[in-house]
Amino acid sequence: MRAFTYERAATPQDAAAALAGHPQARFIAGGTNLLDLMKLQIEAPTHLVDVNHLGLDRIEPTPEGGLRIGALVRNTDLAADARVRRDYAVLSRALLAGASGQLRNKATTAGNLLQRTRCPYFYDTDQPCNKRQPGSGCGALQGYSRQLAVIGGSESCIATHPSDMAVAMRALDAVVETIRADGSARAIPIADFHLLPGDTPHLETVLEQGELITAVTLPPPVGGRQVYRKVRDRASYAFALISVAAVLQPDGTGRVALGGVAPKPWRVAAADAALPQGAQAVASALLQGAAPRPDNAFKLLLAERTLAAVLAEGRA
Amino acid sequence: MKFDTAATTNPIDRLRIIGQPADRIDGRLKTTGTAPYAYERQDIPGDMAHAYVVVAGIAKGRIGAMTLEDAQAAPGVLAIVTAANAGELGQGKMNTARLLGGPHVEHYHQAIAVVVAESFEQAREAAQAIRVTWLPEEGNYDLAAARTAMGDAGQEDDTRVGDFEAGFASAPVQLDATYTTPDQTHAMMEPHATIAAWDGGSLTVWCSNQMVAWTRGDLALTLGLEKEKVRLVSPYVGGGFGGKLFLRADTVLAALAARATGRPVKLALPRPLIANNTTHRPATIQRIRIGAGRDGRIAAIAHESWSGNLKGGDPETAVDQTKLLYAGAHRLTGLRLAELDLPEGNSMRAPGEAPGMMALEIAMDEMAEKLGMDPVEFRILNDTQVDPADPSRPFSQRQLVECLRRGAERFGWSRRQARPGQVREGSWLVGFGMAAGFRNNLQTKSAARVRLDGDGGVIVETDMTDIGTGSYTILAQTAAEMMGVALDRVAVRLGDSDFPASAGSGGQWGANNSTAGVYAACVKLREAVAQALGFNASDAVFEDGEVRLGNRAVPLAEAGALSAEDRIEYGDLAKRYQQSTFAGHFVEVAVDAATGEVRVRRMLAVCAAGRILNPKTARSQVIGAMTMGVGAALMEELAVDTSRGFFVNHDLAGYEVPVHADIPHQEVIFLDETDPLSSPMKAKGVGELGLCGVGAAVANAVYNATGVRVRDYPVTLDKHLARLPAVA
Ligand SMILES: Cc1cc2nc3c(=O)[nH]c(=O)nc-3n(C[C@H](O)[C@H](O)[C@H](O)COP(=O)(O)OP(=O)(O)OC[C@H]3O[C@@H](n4cnc5c(N)ncnc54)[C@H](O)[C@@H]3O)c2cc1C
Ligand code: SF4
């Protein structure tokens, strides 16, 4: 960890401005991801701007009938919110499937969206990694890749985005709200928020330097049966091998997104459309063009079988 | 005291305190966070400096250049020690690779430097500023490739009884199968940590170590000191599992750093470095052949195991149990060692039998199925009460059959469906599995000093360690029973090389031997007390804080502050009798029919392991071991990058061990047993027995649930997913 300076921002715009001219500065929210990365010198910011005291910790109804989740709402509070549990159960379930109680008490909505990959080569500074050190190569491509992406990756990087919460938000068509240093705000559909690696795997989202997430909004509830199924090697406290977030309507239509298979929460319009045809059709639409490695090819079959179980649960 | 004939009745047999489920006497310290672990000690005089380790980023080769200037100039830095300025270092007897490497690199994350600074943060930042250019060399990292290259040739040191090849060839029912177990890391909670301080030419290290005398000796050898100049203190150990049996880099580097700075220095190995920097359990490839008659009697059994290690290292002794567990006239066992450039392999959680039983007990399950026999009955049929290689050598005690029968009854084994893949509960496939448990009992000399404080209290001093097992408590129970005082009148001081050398903690030999050492010292002390108070030692009764004979009773306190030291040593009983411990392990699992995820539902272990000194601490040992068995069966694996030569998932996010949610109902039954041939305590090891066999019981239950046989551990869902029934 490098020595760094620290400030506590007073308003969202101050926070954004504090980072704007400062490529080596970062926001810190719960710190559950950033601090670990700093200790290993995977991230080495020289300045931290604490965004915990900006009043962005409320969950409020929107005029359209949806919910606006402040960027600093803790994962625990979001999962326990009665409106979320009633109207967006897939989100509550996804949150509770992630990390541990202690971590969820600290982890924030924005921090969760921005958490970085768990690729083990990314975490080992003695190994090549294009995401950590652009141009150094990708250790995982020829190495151990059991956890990594089967689709959406590139010859530069096959890392997955590890969030559970984001997969549910993708199924719910959430929108990320931000503020920039000049005070301008924008709303980014979650589908467009994360980037695929291409040959720039170090660029992970469309956020500009200094752009602060202020909230995530959920459109009005869509009802249906809401399922989050996370598959892993142990019963708790493990990242997903794959996960399925699904909203299933009684007429057989619905939405479905996958976690653990791609560099971002993975949803494909054709797969939603294929829902009435069953799991195989959905899986092949979702995973068309997949390029698995020998270590992780099992994820294709696992996704299909898990989808089948989720659809059966939806029908039940 | 020399123990060379069967124990007769002695004061331990009163079982007023021994054999009772006493709470851990260190429990309050542990649960309140006040037991000072090595890194947290506040009582070391002097101005503490902090050290951080720098490690090799390649698996094999040399350091081209190491640029230290930025680190040296960093704030707070006091010294940087490398092989170039450390002075000449020796090599510990138990170490294969050097603990301070450079310019040669022998394995990934081998330590190559240590940075000392005023604060931990400064040391870490400076360590990260050291730039190294590497000159990598080709290495061998792939056990499977090495095994293929080695072929099936036997070796001179193979153990042979009868004519295995002929016996196997003529057996009407045969199994020839290969099983694999992965590399594993100990994953103990407390990392390796040391505080070191010099006083002139004398060194004291406060560290976390299971074997005080071994490690003190190896530290002296490494630093070129006389053993007497080294004191090692390790009173609390936050888990070891074999990872702290030996001198490791934390202790050597802290000592060098303290010497370079003239200050006490503390150092802990960071978690992500532990898997590659320290030792691990080596992976194995095990071929097992069993030939039996149609009646189920084993005629021929062979077990060969391939494992890798650094040049000069040892193989994983995965075939030992196969020499002893089942009958059969024709036998072959052999170990094959491949030279690999992965980190150093060594003991972990029941080395040998843990991975060996994982393979053997699946093979037995497969064989039972081929024979159309119940797996419990197949094992019972092939029980032996003597060493199969030497029928003149009986087992000192062997209640394997009783363990299996009792376990089967208690578990409801009769409800098991012999045909696999038949039981469905909702979305779960349900299966039962079992395995025998087996682990040898080892006799090792062990010394202790026992003192009277002159006020009716007793003090026990020995360098024995308590690695979370309950040593403090059972040693106190032993002294209390022998001296006739209440448990709370005994103070136990452990883990200090100034105290008499004990057996230490490893190989499940700690409890029986170290309590026997305290027993020996107590026998001597009783004689001194009797003499001081004018009693005949052999007739005097030590009870309720008094010494009594006839109608004369004298408070123990009146004997004054006496002290006695002795050790237990063993004759040839272990040669004349095979000493082993036995168990029956039973497991029920559920497998998600869609995803293939395996979840254990309930577990039972029935153990026969001599006298149980404290049923509460023994049970804790066994349920902990059963948990390790679930880890080994279902998730624990160090993933090898066979081109870069290292363990990739080297932190606790990547290396999964069971969490609470993975561990359901666990039941442990101890059979009533005393073994007068093991020691005056009539006890044996029990902790590691709780692990040996569990992995196979889980794997066999998974097979029973799914009908898909997985022979490569861990049994993760990807290994059976494609063969599970279609999702409805
Ligand atoms: C052991 C462990 C297990 C875990 N398991 C899981 C799991 O199973 N599933 C899962 O989904 N997650 C898991 N996590 C990840 C966890 O969810 C994230 O660490 C957490 O959500 C990050 O939130 P935070 O507030 O602590 O982020 P921080 O660490 O504070 O920040 C993360 C990043 O977000 C940036 N940032 C924070 N707030 C803002 C903002 N308002 N605007 C712009 N940028 C911002 C920071 O600059 C930083 O780059 C696990 C983490 C750990 C340590
Ligand atoms: S997959 Fe991506 S994160 Fe992992 S090593 Fe390759 S570039 Fe780095």
UniProtKB/TrEMBL annotation, chain A:
This protein's record includes keyword Flavoprotein: yes
UniProt cross-references to Pfam families, sorted A to Z: FAD_binding_5
The organism's place on the tree of life at top rank: Bacteria
Record InterPro entries: CO_DH_flav_C, CO_DH_flav_C_dom_sf, Diverse_Substr_Oxidored, FAD-bd_PCMH, FAD-bd_PCMH-like_sf, FAD-bd_PCMH_sub1, FAD-bd_PCMH_sub2, Mopterin_DH_FAD-bd
Domain FAD-binding PCMH-type: 1-223
Keywords linked to the UniProt accession: FAD, Flavoprotein
Matching SMART domains: CO_deh_flav_C (SM01092)
Family matches, as PANTHER family: ALDEHYDE OXIDOREDUCTASE FAD-BINDING SUBUNIT PAOB, XANTHINE DEHYDROGENASE SUBUNIT C-RELATED
Protein name per UniProt: Xanthine dehydrogenase family protein subunit M
UniProtKB/TrEMBL annotation, chain B:
Superkingdom of this protein's organism: Bacteria
Gene3D superfamilies according to UniProt: Aldehyde oxidase/xanthine dehydrogenase, a/b hammerhead, Aldehyde oxidase/xanthine dehydrogenase, molybdopterin binding domain
Organism for this UniProt entry: Falsiroseomonas frigidaquae
Domain Aldehyde oxidase/xanthine dehydrogenase a/b hammerhead per the UniProt entry, residue ranges: 32-138
One Pfam short name: MoCoBD_2
InterPro entries from the UniProt entry: Ald_Oxase/Xan_DH_a/b, Ald_Oxase/Xan_DH_a/b_sf, Ald_Oxase/xanthine_DH-like, AldOxase/xan_DH_MoCoBD1, AldOxase/xan_DH_MoCoBD2, AldOxase/xan_DH_Mopterin-bd_sf, PaoC-like
Protein name per the record: Xanthine dehydrogenase family protein molybdopterin-binding subunit
